[in-house]
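Project outcomes to date are best conveyed with an example. Our students and postdoctoral researchers have been running inverse folding experiments weekly, and each run begins with a structure described purely in C-alpha cells. The record below, which covers 437 residues, was selected by the lab manager from last quarter's runs and is presented without edits.
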C-alpha cells in the first residue's frame, strides 16, 4: 500500500482537506493526459492538475531538461550572480508576450507574482513623484493567491475575514457574473462598458490621484470561470490610462494558451502595464512565476539607481536554474506542438460538447472560453458545495479528474487533449449529472 498510514503531519489548511484525510485519494504517477492512483487506476485529467500542466504530464523534453540542469548547475545565487538560462527564458517570454511587455521578473508562484506586481505598482508611482497613489482596486470574486496583498485585492471575503484590515485602501469593483440578469458574457452589448464604468465611480469617490493600480484576472478562473462581457476589459484599459492608473492582469490561469491565445491580453486585445503569470510557465512541473512589465515601468526603476536600492525585492529562487530550464523546455514544447493556439482550434468542439449538458438535472448555466469551461449547478438548499463535490467524487471513481468550486464544476484540460477525450469527459459528466441528488 503506497498510502502512508499516518496522514496527520502534512497539513493544508483548506476545509476540503479534512474530508480528504478521512478518505485519502492519492496520485502516484502521471503521463500525458492521465494520472495513476495509488490503487492503480487511470484517471483522465480534466483540469491540467490545478490549471497548470498545459502540455500534459511527464513530457520527455521537460523531464530531461530538469534532470540535465540539476546535474550541470543546480543553483546560482539570485542577487549578485546570474546564469544564462534565466536570461534566455526572459527573452523567450518577451517573444510571446504582447508588444510593450518587454521585461520579466521571476518569482516562484502565482501568489508571489501578485505581490511583486502590487509592490512594483506602488513603488513606480513613488519614483515618479506621485506618492499619493497608494490605493489599489480589485474585483469581487477575484482570486489572486493567498499572500497578504493577494487576499487584500482578492474578492473572496471568507479568505480575508480572519486578518483584520490587511492592505489599507483597497476597493473592489463588482464581478462580471450576473446569472440572474443572464448578463454575463451574453448580455446586451453595452453591459461590458457599463460594468467597467463602476471603476469610474470608485475613481471619482477617492480621486484619481490616490489610486495606484487596478488588478483583474482577464477571466476569473478558480472562482468559477467568469468571462467578462464584450468591451469590459477595453473600457477598463481606457479608464486606467485616462487617470494614470496602472492596469495589472493576473494571467496565472489565462496565460500560456488556456484561452487559445498565448495570453488573455491577446484574446481580448488589451495590453496591461503589468502581467502576472505562473502555473503554465513551467507546465506546473517546477514552481515558478514571471511578472512582465512595460518599458515605462522598467525604465523608471532602472534610470535612478537610488530607487533600485530603495525597492528591495526578489527571491532566493528568482530565476533559479532548474526552474529556468523547465520553463525553456516548456516553451519549446508549446511552440513545437502549437499548444499556445491549440485551444482556439479545439474551442468549437469543446463548446459543443459542454453545451450538450444543457437541460440535464441541476444544470443552471454552462460557460466556456478557449479550453476552460464551467458547469454551474443549482445548490442544495442550506448545503452549498455539496452537489458539486458529490459530482467530483463520482467523477474520480469513474476515472475523471474535475475541479469544483462552490457549486461549479470547472474544466481546464491539458491543451494536448484529443477530441475523443473531450467526448469522454462530457459523456462521463452527463452520466454523473443524471445520478446526482
Ligand atoms: N492568481 C490566480 C488568478 C490564480 O488562479 C492563482 C492560483 N489558482 C493564483 C494567483 C495563486 O497562484 P499560486 O497558487 O501559484 O500561488
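After processing, the design step wrote out the following sequence:
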Amino acid at each position: 500500500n503506497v498510502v502512508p498510514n499516518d496522514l496527520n503531519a502534512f497539513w493544508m489548511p483548506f476545509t476540503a482537506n479534512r474530508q480528504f484525510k478521512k478518505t485519502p485519494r492519492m496520485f502516484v504517477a502521471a503521463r500525458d493526459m492521465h494520472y495513476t492512483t495509488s490503487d492503480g487506476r487511470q484517471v483522465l485529467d480534466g483540469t491540467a492538475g490545478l490549471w497548470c500542466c498545459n502540455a500534459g504530464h511527464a513530457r520527455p523534453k521537460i523531464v530531461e531538461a530538469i534532470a540535465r540542469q540539476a546535474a550541470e548547475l543546480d543553483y546560482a545565487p539570485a542577487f549578485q550572480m546570474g546564469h544564462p538560462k534565466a536570461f534566455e527564458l526572459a527573452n523567450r517570454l518577451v517573444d510571446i508576450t504582447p508588444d510593450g511587455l518587454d521585461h520579466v521578473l521571476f518569482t516562484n508562484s502565482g501568489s508571489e507574482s501578485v505581490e511583486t506586481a502590487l509592490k512594483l505598482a506602488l513603488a513606480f508611482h513613488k519614483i515618479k513623484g506621485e506618492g499619493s497613489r497608494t490605493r489599489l482596486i480589485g474585483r469581487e470574486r477575484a482570486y489572486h493567491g493567498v499572500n497578504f496583498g493577494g487576499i487584500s485585492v482578492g474578492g473572496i471575503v471568507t479568505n480575508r475575514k480572519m486578518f483584520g484590515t490587511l492592505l489599507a485602501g483597497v476597493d473592489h469593483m463588482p464581478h462580471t457574473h450576473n446569472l440572474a440578469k443572464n448578463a454575463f458574457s451574453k448580455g446586451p452589448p453595452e453591459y461590458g462598458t457599463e460594468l467597467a464604468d463602476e471603476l469610474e465611480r470608485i475613481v471619482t469617490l477617492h480621486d484619481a490621484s490616490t489610486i495606484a493600480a487596478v488588478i483583474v484576472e482577464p477571466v476569473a478562473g478558480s472562482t468559477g470561470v467568469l468571462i467578462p462581457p464584450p468591451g469590459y476589459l477595453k473600457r477598463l484599459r481606457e479608464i486606467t490610462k485616462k487617470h494614470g492608473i496602472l492596469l495589472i492582469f493576473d494571467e496565472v490561469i489565462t496565460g500560456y494558451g488556456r484561452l487559445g491565445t498565448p495570453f488573455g491580453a491577446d484574446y481580448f486585445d488589451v495590453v496591461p502595464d503589468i502581467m502576472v503569470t505562473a502555473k503554465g510557465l513551467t507546465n506546473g512541473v517546477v514552481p515558478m512565476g514571471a511578472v512582465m512589465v512595460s518599458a515605462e515601468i522598467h525604465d523608471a526603476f532602472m534610470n535612478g539607481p537610488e530607487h533600485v536600492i530603495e525597492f528591495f525585492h526578489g527571491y532566493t529562487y528568482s530565476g533559479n536554474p532548474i526552474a529556468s530550464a523547465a520553463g525553456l523546455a516548456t516553451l519549446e514544447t508549446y511552440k513545437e506542438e502549437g499548444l499556445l493556439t491549440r485551444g482556439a482550434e479545439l474551442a468549437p468542439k469543446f463548446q459543443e460538447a459542454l453545451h450538450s449538458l444543457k437541460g440535464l438535472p441541476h444544470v443552471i448555466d454552462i460557460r466556456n472560453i478557449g479550453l476552460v469551461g464551467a458547469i454551474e449547478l443549482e445548490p442544495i438548499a442550506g448545503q452549498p458545495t455539496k452537489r458539486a463535490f458529490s459530482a467530483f467524487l463520482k467523477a474520480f471513481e469513474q476515472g475523471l479528474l474535475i475541479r469544483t468550486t462552490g457549486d461549479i464544476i470547472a474544466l481546464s484540460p491539458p491543451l494536448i487533449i484529443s477530441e475523443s477525450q473531450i467526448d469522454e469527459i462530457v459523456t462521463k459528466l452527463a452520466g454523473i449529472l443524471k445520478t446526482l441528488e
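The chain has 16 helices and 15 strands. The first strand starts at residue 27 and ends at 31. The training component of this project remains on track.
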